[in-house]
Amino acid sequence: MQHQNFQKGIVSLAAVLTIGVFALGLVFNAANGALGEIAKNRNGRLAERTFAAAESENREGVYQFLKSPASYPEGHHVLPAVSMNGADANEITLDVDWPYVEARGRSDNGKTEHKNLRRITVFPEGAAFDYALYSNGDMDITGNADVTGNIAANENLSIENAAASVEGNLYVGENYDPHGNANVEGEVSLETVTPPPSIDTAPYRIEAETSGALFGTPATLENYLKNRTRHAVVYGDFTNPANIQNTNLTGTLITTGDVKLNGGTFTASPDHAALIVGGNLDLAGGVVINGLVLVNGSEVSGTGNATINGSLLSTSGGPLNVTGSIVVNYVPYDWMELTGLNTVSSEPPKLLNWVNE
Is the pTM of this model over 0.90? Predict the structure, then answer.
């Protein structure tokens, strides 16, 4: 009997020990889980701190540049960090390439690192040069235009001809009317107004006068260019319309009134617009224009597959009617050095993008 009681005691003790070990395991696992959550929360807080610190440095970089742009010429700049925020290493850098400024903030606490980038432009007017067609007012495409590139109208945009084709996006300040069922292969976006750039033609006039290519009547301009190849800045200072035929011009053609270009090729020289027209522009005879075209009139018309390889801008604020047969192929160009460009912006700096690198 005593032997049996002894065996039962051993069994009971083993059971107690087993339950104790199991319970201890549960407690150990719970403790480990709690410690893991604590570590996870701590790492989360550290990550939040480094993110906040990087964002703070990023904003500080933009602030310092806008406060004193002259202190940061084009190039790479390292600024003193200001927000430690629990981080071991913070950094601010600025990369300036007018009109663009990239501000980077970096924060590293040894466990987590964050880098943020803000890219701004101090010349929002420059965005107008990114479009194949741009109007500071309304734009009405009534012809069978063939456009490769984006289109922007600061007010209303209408495409009335089903034969028109656009391979690009449409950016509209107010309303878009697609009643012509044109073939548009991009998206339509309501955008804030892109302010128009301002081009001073005085430097062009001086160049033309210096080289003997300043003309006061349509007839003298037409005789200078008709059926000829010229390398010059040519300036026509008159209000009557001019009709220019079969000219191959490298440089710039400026007219203060209406002009018709019938045949030929017009190619912009470096840092110059190809064509600046104070009135309406009529393109015919398969004329080809390579470069920037600026029109202050209300109409651009085309026949015979006239082609613009560059962009067409209307900056006057009035309505622009694009009619007839015109091909516009957007070709990027270095507008930052454009002769006559007024680089003093009338707008506040604009944020282009923000990236958590």
Answer: no
Mean pLDDT in runs of 10 for the chain (357 residues)?
48 48 48 44 57 82 90 93 63 93 86 87 95 95 93 93 91 87 87 89 98 97 98 97 97 97 97 97 96 95 92 92 94 95 94 88
pLDDT in tens, 233-288: 999 999 999 999 999 999 999 999 999 999 999 999 999 999 999 999 999 999 99
Question: Which residues lie below 8 Å from residue 124, measured CB to CB, with a gap of 6+?
Answer: 194, 195, 345, 347, 348, 349, 350
Please give, one letter per residue, the 3-state secondary structure of the chain: CHHHHHHHHHHHHHHHHHHHHHHHHHHHHHHHHHHHHHHHHHHHHHHHHHHHHHHHHHHHHHHHHHHCHHHCCCEEEEECCCCCCCCCEEEEEEEEECCEEEEEEEEECCCCEEEEEEEEECCHHHHHHHCCEEECCCEEECCCCEEECCEEECCCEEECCCCCEEECCEEECCCEECCCCCEECCCEEECCCCCCCCECCHHHHHHHHHCCCEECCHHHHHHHHCCCEEEEEEEECCCCCEEEEEEEEEEEEEECCCEEEEEEEEEECCCCCCEEECCCEEEECCCEEEEEEEECCCEEEEEEEEEEEEEEEECCCCCEEEEEEEEEEECCCCHHHCCCECCCCCCCCEEEEEEEC
Q: Nearest to residue 81, comparing CAs of 97, 98, 94? A: 94
The answer to whether 273 touches 290, Cβ cutoff 8 Å, is no
Tell me the C-alpha distance between 296 and 278, whole Å. Answer: 5
Number of C-beta neighbours around residue 112 at 10 A = 17
| Span 3-24, pLDDT tens digits | 444 445 544 544 444 555 454 4
| Region for 238 from its dihedrals, namely left if φ exceeds 0, alpha if ψ lies in -120 to 50, beta otherwise | beta
Beta bridge partners of 254: 235, 276
